Amino acid sequence: MFVLSRPHGTVRGRGVRRAFADAAAARAALSTGAARAITGAIPFDPADAAALVEPGLLEFDDAPLTPTPPTPRQVVSMTTHPDPRTHRDRVVAAIKQIADGVVDKVVLARAVDIVVRPGVEITELLGALAGGNVDRNAFAVDVGAVTGDASWLLGSSPEVLLRKQGRVVTCSPYAGSARRSDDPAADRAAAEALASSSKDLAEHRFVVDYLRDRLAPLSSDLDAPSTPEVRSTGEIWHLATPIRATLRDPSVTALDLAALLSPTPAVCGTPSDVAAELIRDVEEPRRLYGGAVGWCDAAGDGEWMVTIRCLRLAADRESLRTWAGGGIVAQSDPQDELDETTAKLATVLNALGVEHA
Ligand SMILES: C=C(O[C@H]1C=CC=C(C(=O)O)[C@@H]1O)C(=O)O
């Protein structure tokens, strides 16, 4: 099964006609008409395995998922990779590499392995993920349909990599973050400070410039405002820029575009190849985290989210891994960057119904 809930509706893929661990094979099947639709996830590193399927049926519902309250759960164990101090050290090293001119921006992430009880039921967690944000965003991908390991990828990403309808492509890159507050005045002040933070505006600009550079050669027109908006999830304020382009060639599919654009500097960095290598050198393989989750129909239309604020749930339904990353730029502060990852982890922890600081 595949589910993507968005404010404008929910897409469900039911059944599996064919599974693809190779995104290029899925793209080819779609463009030759051998596959009528593709749903699933592409990895952060294009060399890793995708979790894509041709579903038996693709269903559209014009409402987002109905939110459900999280089920209270106990944490049996929790370990972070790397530990917080090592993450901070990696940020220090990245800031030095930026100062030395090796890279302009790199997104460093940490993973958290958690065992929870009671175990997770997919539909229930999806409802809790949808309930945690204003847009009702949530996704679930049956990764086991491709890998055979009965694992799932679930999450609530705020970030639209792309949506394609006919020739029109829209993107909504997110980069630049501030933790929200329960106090309305402090919450508003945090949003205002983010909107004028030169560090966050610089961090955001790398993503917009990258998307513009990749989309421009394919587009007859492209609009990307020079000033980002401030958007919120349940836990965080983000800088976001609505981008709109018109494709010259209507045969380019949403999956083609996902492969072209992912991973953006919201999850990788600038220049992309240098940042990807730095990430590969220090982090455990991200696999599907930092890639893209979405669907594409026979007409080439579809929608792909950046795979963040997500978890990979193991077959036992009690063991899971979640991740949080942050963009490191010249003005980054190591402790702030560590705290930002902690704030981002709250999206998944809240939906799981576990107590956390
Ligand atoms: C890499 C993540 O967030 C990205 C998206 C929005 C804001 C980000 C930031 O401010 O660093 C990140 O670029 C993550 O949540 O794991």
TrEMBL record:
Tell me the ranges covered by the Chorismate-utilising enzyme C-terminal domain, including all copies.
85-344
Q: GO biological process annotations for this chain's record?
A: salicylic acid biosynthetic process
Enzyme Commission identifier(s): 5.4.4.2
Cross-referenced InterPro entries, in alphabetical order?
Answer: ADC_synthase (IPR005801), Anth_synth_I-like (IPR019999), Chorismate_C (IPR015890), IsoChor_synthase (IPR004561)
- Keyword check for Zinc, yes or no: no
Q: Where is the signal peptide?
A: none
Q: Which Pfam families match?
A: Chorismate_bind
**Which GO terms fall under molecular function for this chain's record?**
isochorismate synthase activity
- Stored SUPFAM superfamilies: ADC synthase
Q: Does the keyword Transmembrane helix apply?
A: no
| Region annotation (Disordered) ranges | 64-85
Which key words tag this protein in UniProt? Isomerase
Known catalytic reactions: chorismate = isochorismate
Q: What class of enzyme is it?
A: isomerase
Q: Which Gene3D superfamilies match?
A: Anthranilate synthase
Provide the family line.
Belongs to the isochorismate synthase family.
NCBIfam families for the chain: isochor_syn
PANTHER family reported for this sequence:
ISOCHORISMATE SYNTHASE ENTC
Q: What is this protein called?
A: isochorismate synthase
The species this protein belongs to is Gordonia mangrovi
Q: What is the lineage of its organism?
A: Bacteria, Bacillati, Actinomycetota, Actinomycetes, Mycobacteriales
